[in-house]
Structures are given as C-alpha cells and as structure tokens.
Description:
Largest sheet: 4 strands, antiparallel
Order of helices and strands: EEEEEEE
Shape: globular
Amino acid sequence: ADNLPSDNILSLYPNPFSSSITIVTKKEFENSTIIIFDVLGQEVKREKITSQKITIDRDNLTRGIYFYRLMQENTIIASGKLIAK
C-alpha cells in the first residue's frame, strides 16, 4: 500500500496549538484512533475518532514537538507532527 500524504486524509489546526487542536478527517474512519507521542516515542494521548471533526484538549502536554498517528485496525493511515506552543 502506498503511504498517502496525511493532508489527503486529515487536517489539524491550529498547528502549533496552545489550548486544543482540532482534527478534521476527509472521510469517516470507523473504529479509528489518533495516538499522540512525544519525541521519545512515549504515548501521551489517545483519542477515539468518533466523527469527522474532533477537538483534543492540550491538558498536561508540555511545550514541544509531538507526533501523531491515525490508526485503524492496527494500520497507520496517517501520521505527522504537531507542535504545542
């Protein structure tokens, strides 16, 4: 399978974000989850995708660079970088 560029699948804004980040997917992804990792690869957040637009609160994430993966049934369907400012 080709790795599709993430911007074909989802968009995140604002990025960098301060209090929360909104994720909009281009289509409905059943049973999918977005997982956010820190630069050390530790999972710091996990949210079920329940609609085509979800908002994730920053909560206790410190300033810095994070990586996300949109997972559907153990397959990565999108990934990228986000920045907490």
